Amino acid sequence: MKKKEEETSNRPDNTAFTQQRLPAWQPMLSAGIVIPGFVVIGLAFIGVGVALFVTSQSIQVLERDYTAGDESSDHNCSLCVNEASCLCAVHFTLVQQFEGPVFFYYGLSNYFQNHRKYGVSRDDYQLSGDTSYFTDPQDYCVPYQYDSKNRPIVPCGSVANSIFNDTFKLYQIVGGQRKQVPFDGKGISWWTDYNLKYRNPSLVDGSLAKAFNGTVKPVNWPRAVYELDTSDASNNGFLNQDFLVWMRRAALPDFRKLYRRITEGEYEKGLPVGNYSLEINYNYPVRGFGGRKKVFFSNVTWMGGKNQFLGIAYLVIGSLCIFMSLVMLIVYAKYRFPDEDS
Amino acid sequence: MCLQTVIYLSIYLSIYLSIYLSIYLSIYLSIYLSIYLSIYLSIYLSIYLSIYPYPHTPLCRPAKISKCSYLMRCSAHPCLDRIDSGLSIDNDLLPPSLLPPPLHSPALPSPPLPPPLRREMGFVERRWRDVRVGDFVKVVSNEVIPADILLLHTSDPNGVCLIETANLDGETNLKQRKVVPGFAAAPTSPFKPAAFKSTVVCEKPNNDLNHFSGYIEKPDKKKLGFGIDSLLLRGCTIRNTEESSGIVVYAGHETKSMLNNGGARYKRSRLERQMNIDVLFCVVLLFSMCLIGAIGHALWLETFSSIPPYLVADSDGHFIPSTLAGFYMFFTMIILLQVLIPISLYVSIELVKMGQVYFITQDVDLYDEETDTRVQCRALNITEDLGQVQYVFSDKTGTLTENKMVFRRCTIMGTEYSHSENAIRLAVLGEADASEDEVTLFQQQQQPSLFAGDPGESIKRCHSTQVDVSGSQRSKVTTGSQAQSALAFSSPLETEVVPDRKLLQVVLGAEHQGEESGLDRSLYLDFFVALAICNTVVVSTATAQRQRVKGRRNSCAPRTFLGRLQGVLKKIASPQSLFRIVKDKQEPLSDPFAADEECPDLSDTPTIYSTAVEGGGPKTRARVTTAPRPAQRQGAEPGSASLVDDDVCYESQSPDEAALVHAARAYGFTLLERTPDRVTVRLPGRGVALLTYEVLDILTFDSTRKRMSVLVRHPHTHEIILYTKGADSAVMELLEEPADETVSQREFRKGLSSSTQRHLDMYARDGLRTLCFAKRVVGQKAYEEWSLLRQQAIAAIENRAELLMDTAALLETNLTLIGATGIEDRLQDNVPETIEALRAAGMQVWVLTGDKPETAVNIAYSCKLLDQRDLVFTLSTDNKAVCKSRLEGTLQEVRRYGSDTAFRGYAEGLRGPGAGSLGEDPTIGLVIDGRTLGLALEEEDLRSKFVELCRHCRSVLCCRVTPLQKSTVVKLVREKLRVMTLAIGDGANDVNMIQAADVGIGISGQEGMQAVMASDFAISRFKHLRKLLLVHGHWCYSRLSNMVIYFFYKNLAYVALLFWYQFFCGFSGTTMIDYWLMIFFNLLFTSAPPIMHGVVDQDVSAATLLSTPELYKMGQHSEGYRRSAFWIGMVDAFYQSLVCFFIPYLTYRGSDIDIFAFGNPMNTVSLFTIILHLAIEINAWTVVHWVIMLGSVLAYFAVTLAYSAICVSCNPPSDPYWIMQQQMADPMFYLVCLITVVVALLPKYTVQVVRGTLRPSTLLYAKQLERLLPRPQMEEQIRIDASEAPPTPRFRLSDLSSPSPPDSPLPPPPTTPPPHPTPHPPPATSRIVSP
């Protein structure tokens, strides 16, 4: 046995891999080769940039800040400066047709929904309808886990507790008469959130409310989670659209969230020219942390909302590439490799 | 108030820290580290085990141990017999030093054997683990020795025992161990442990394999000393000795071999040392980022006048003070950003090195067919140091030369015998050896014309010879496995010596005239006797060889025969040597004295010559294939006594000795037997005249005395004769100067020594190794007196070595010079080319040798270490003051000279690759001998002067240096000049040097494995150094340095992304990317490409690297890994992370995007940026590259998509569900990715392009060169370059650089020697500086 081992040669395999002789492509970075590349990239980018810019320009946006505290001709929300619940209105006039479908957003500034501890403060098992977590919410929810009488809070945690609770109604002023513009609140949340991720607990005796027996509403909420939408019984519990939208935390401290879409009736094609009044049920306090509240009307295209940046960026980078190719050309003409002459 | 704060603080600290640390550290880090480490380490280990089959140390081969314990269990094959007589050796009798405390303390007696065995008083079989100090152990032939055993008895009548130490030091020759002198009982009687009533005293366990001393105190208080030659070392194997018994003196972990087994040596490469500093920078960076986070968080909290709804209170509804929150945030940030500390980098580096080692060991160019060895990477973590070597310290013998000693010439009694016939034979043989193909080629082209005078015969012979060559090749192939392991001195090159005709006559005359011849003749006899017996060569007969289990070595006789046949056939094949063949053919196979009458005639008589060829050649050839053994018998027929001859096989630790013994044998003085007491020599003559000398003592060789002696008693005259063999300096000083000699005697003596010295000088000039032989007749009385001293010295425990040396020196005086020999040590293949390439690569090559200056200088010239045009300074002095003044004088001269040329070249060499045209200027060489070196190394002042001087020298040659000096020189250069040093050597005397250098390379040559054991890399030929350094070294360095910088960049680029987000989330430590995806990002998506880059990327192909050694300078000047490169990488990472963060940020700002939908494009963009960043760096795209790069990207999408689809709410705080799918349906995602990647990489790409065009590096030129020359053609050309032609690269870098910009660092065309501006024209020959 031993002898046999010794007779086998120790010679390494002479293959391209072991001898590191695999055929290889060696890109050479020199001006001569990259100039066409730069030109092509530059032209393509300029093309994309123009398309983006034009698309972005076509998007109409109407933005109004209605934060209480500062005087404005547009709105009378300074009435609500004492932060008590009150009604106020924002007035605006459209001088040209606002193309539909119009999306209506509310926006918050300096609001850190992305704060780490805030983001953690929720119980996803509760929200997926697991009733065992109704009686015993997860510790992440502290301090909104149990109320002062040690009853479990559902939905627990800071995120749910701090839900945005201003409500809006839009009226068109037609001949001095207020005509309500219908809002469409369906399908404003993520499809997967509504259909897969968030689940209501199974009904007890055909009643959603009974499923929440033994739990209390979050501290700041006026009503329980199964009573969020008084007008539409199906829009309650964890599947309430506003709740779902709120629970998807914004990435940045200045954000907007979709509130409603205007897709119905005569406003399907958009908001016609005229005067409008947005009635606000002013509840949500922001002055304490220097936040601001806004509303947005916007229409959307394939590239989402209005954003000039990307188009401009493409244009700039495209131009830069063209410029670079010119520089390269000069460099190449001056210091090219000798061998490239031949 | 104060108390409240304190309570507050303490409560919060404890709660927070415990929560934070427990949750975060446990979850995050444990997941992170466990995944990382488990995956990385498992890969690492699996690769490690699969590609590293060589055992670290030969002793702990697991296979061996387990096998043995198995064997011990079965009674059929006893592995160990042992007796615990209980009577004989009382453990308490042993001195405490001998006893391992836990084993022999009274509380813990060695496990008692069952009483019946004790009564039987016989040996019983036991496992190794049961062997204890003080046990008597019997080991039979071919068993591995279980512990360090003091040999007390052997079955051999002479009380010797042969062991093979291959397990210990890799040396395969047998070594002789003998029973403790004076202790030996009658060898035939079985050993009776019960009768052992002595006390053994020996030294404490130590790791010196070559030294051991102690004594046995008999009951009558008589002390018997013993040394290493009575100790059987654990791990060795008993050979050729039926059984040996002894007492265990060290067992288990105290054995010398185990103590030698001290943990794995760990060298850190220079790159890693540099890298560690950069890791510290990363730590500083991490801390500053965390600090920013902490302060930012505290300040952010301060901005609120009331509590906002998104701030979460604690369970009791309170909020902690903002400063405290900031303090906690610091730790949160550390956890968040800790990827910046590249733990994965260390694991990846190990993986990369595994891969690099794999490719190095796979290189077929570094494989040596002859010995069937590949290059071995024994140190796994310093591969990249191979690419940064600046100083090469080489041993001469066995490293530059083959260490195949060939007897060349001798001088006896002042008469020189040139052995010209032998020289011619060697020339032919060497040529044939060098390239068999060449011989064939040569014949085909030239032979017919040579034999034009006799066409018929010539054609016939030509035909036959060609067949012969192929036949011999075939036979070589079939016996390949035998050839590879055959002893070096059994090849025909060394074993055959053609006697000098004149000398032969003189010797025969001496023989014939016998006793009546005068002093003159007997001295001739003495010379050959000394040649034959003054050594430690072990004689083993072919039959004895066969006894050994190791099949590979039983081929001694056939191998010799085949080898001879090959030699003969080759000689026949070579037309130049036709005249000599006959003599050759007859000579070695026959007794020289049987052939001596014909010998002179033969070479002159064409008839005999032709018959010899006709009859001998083909006949022998015919037998090669059929039956080698009978052929040998018949071929050897002419000399009747030669049958005995051929069965003798010599094994020697030193090739010189073997060469001398073979030389003596060629003159008929055949060493037949050697035992500790006797040595038998057969004298030339018709009858079998055997002389059996009684060996009284052997004064072994040591490097201080530089000589060895044997003290023998002549069988007939009963004279006690001391034969001494040693270096001429060591022997010449000791020659007798009797007071009572006559004038003529004195004249004669002086003439003798001066002419011998003259011859010695001549030998040295020819590059031969010289040895002087001298004898001394010792009076009986003087011997007895000396013997007493000797006994004391042997028994001494302390200073035994010195005492032995002193006693030896005591006897070695008043010697009578007999003669001297010159032994040739042939240069290895391609040594000059290799040295030239190494120097072209900017390395300074030093040769440190124990040889004499003349020989060393000669070798230095022949291997192109010194050039004829070089200015060579020689320093040799005994006096310190002289040494100092010479050193200063030389330094001044060198400076004066160097200020014009050499130093400029040096400075240029520093400035950049390809800057210096060092190779073209005549430069300075320094030759310094050991004594002067010793003086120069004594004082700090002199040391720095010496180093300064050496820095100016292109090559330094240190002669007559001791092993210690070798390492001192290496250390000195390494520390003073702060350069990367490489030491290469093959012998035990190089071990110090190899260990002292940054990179130690061992050559697995003739002198055992000690050097290899101590080395980091082991190669088999010196020429392999060229590819190992220039190609693998360069690759490993550039690959690894790129990889390390890339890794730093990669970590920062990703971590900074998280950091920028902190500015938008109130520094709260939020991540916008799911934790798992973050872990996967580092672990799966971006880990393989850098590792792949580090293992297989090639900046330049091997062929180009070999042909343009200048490319190596990149590593020497640490250009691959510089602090600037690190910082550029870091800045680039910052820039790229800014781009990767802010372009998506600006795009999505103010929209209704949620956190993870915001993080997803960033993650994707980072991946593309990081991967494409590497793509820009990759030099050559092979299949492997494509697979791994594309695979990484695909893995990212596959894993992310799968994760987003599966993880509905599995990772609670984060919410990655359906994010990727959502994003990939959005055109904006692609647009964002596209522009971000382009903007992130644009600067790097542009810089790369512009630099490549404006200031192309040497490497880039090399790449250009490769483009111009198609690959296969290039390789072919290199092969030609490397094999025969002097390696002048046909394409020079400068050829490409004609219109180079003014600030280009390219060298001026080096083809034309620059005009010499110095006042000192380069001298034509070397110059000696006088004080």
TrEMBL record, chain A:
InterPro entries: CDC50/LEM3_fam. The chain crosses the membrane at residues 33-54, 312-333. Its main location: membrane. Keywords: Membrane, Transmembrane, Transmembrane helix. One of its GO terms (cellular component) is membrane. It is found in: Membrane. It comes from the Eukaryota. This is Cell cycle control protein. It comes from Coilia grayii (Gray's grenadier anchovy).
TrEMBL record, chain B:
Its main location: endoplasmic reticulum. Residues 1012-1257 form the P-type ATPase C-terminal domain. It is found in: Endoplasmic reticulum membrane; Membrane. Residues 611-643, 1280-1331 are annotated as: Disordered. Pfam families: Cation_ATPase (PF13246), PhoLip_ATPase_C (PF16212). One of its GO terms (cellular component) is endoplasmic reticulum membrane. The active site is at D395. Its EC number is 7.6.2.1. InterPro entries: ATPase_P-typ_cyto_dom_N, ATPase_P-typ_P_site, ATPase_P-typ_TM_dom_sf, ATPase_P-typ_transduc_dom_A_sf, HAD-like_sf, HAD_sf, P-type_ATPase_IV, P_typ_ATPase. Residues 1299-1324 have a biased composition (Pro residues). Its cofactor is Mg(2+). Keywords: ATP-binding, Endoplasmic reticulum, Magnesium, Membrane, Metal-binding, Nucleotide-binding, Translocase, Transmembrane, Transmembrane helix. Mg(2+) binds at D395, T397, D986, D990. It catalyses: a beta-D-glucosyl-(1<->1')-N-acylsphing-4-enine(out) + ATP + H2O = a beta-D-glucosyl-(1<->1')-N-acylsphing-4-enine(in) + ADP + phosphate + H(+); ATP + H2O + phospholipidSide 1 = ADP + phosphate + phospholipidSide 2. It is a multi-pass membrane protein. ATP binds at D395, K396, T397, E657, F701, K725, R769, T849, G850, D851, R960, K966, N989, D990. The chain crosses the membrane at residues 7-27, 33-54, 277-300, 320-347, 1061-1085, 1124-1146, 1158-1176, 1183-1206, 1228-1247. GO terms for molecular function: ATP binding; flippase activity; magnesium ion binding. Belongs to the cation transport ATPase (P-type) (TC 3.A.3) family. Type IV subfamily. This is Phospholipid-transporting ATPase.
